[in-house]
């Protein structure tokens, strides 16, 4: 039998976590309520296990794991559909939340989701051979997107990511392409939401939605447009 690694992740209470993963299409295959609350969820070849701890603070969690798939786009759409059905929208901030799908510099296409227990699950598909970081882009706006994405998602420095985006959006001697401007504005709105900066989020979303894009540009910016849709929906009462 081949070896298998199964992450065991903490949470303060099992029910919200199990509800979240059930919405994503997971099945609860085991649940123990006493003496120690413990549960297992499975979806296809993915298995996650959870244990409940009294007084555990999800917002301070650093628990994480990585799920590799050969169909990250399909999983992302399936998860978004399940969350819309369960929550009425895609949760984009706070707990739980789901991040945007994007191509990363280290050869994966991925998205991050954080469950009600504060556990960050990265879901990705390899797009490169090495799995190592490529050199940062030299072009101004591509470089800003590269660094801001890493700061916001990999490092968790949301404020630092905001400064990177704000700096290049203020440039007057260089101009981003329409797709780059869309990606920068959507990323800035996303970051602002996570910082509870509602005014900046609303302004960035409005600017992004007002962009006139060709069909080819919409295809290139499809990930950002999907995130734009989710961010708008999350602002509705």
Could you give a short description of this structure?
The chain has helices spanning 14-23, 72-87, 140-155, 158-169, 178-194, 198-210, 215-220, 222-235; strands at residues 8-11, 27-32, 38-43, 46-52, 64-68, 97-98, 102-103, 108-114, 120-126. It is an alpha+beta fold and 237 residues long.
Report how far apart the termini are. Answer: 51 Å
Strand content: 15-25%
Q: Count every beta strand, where a strand is a DSSP E run of 2 or more residues.
A: 9
Radius of gyration: 19 Å
Helix content: 40-55%
Category by helix and strand content:
alpha+beta
Sheet with most strands = 5 strands, mixed
Give unreliable regions as ranges: none
The number of helical runs is 8
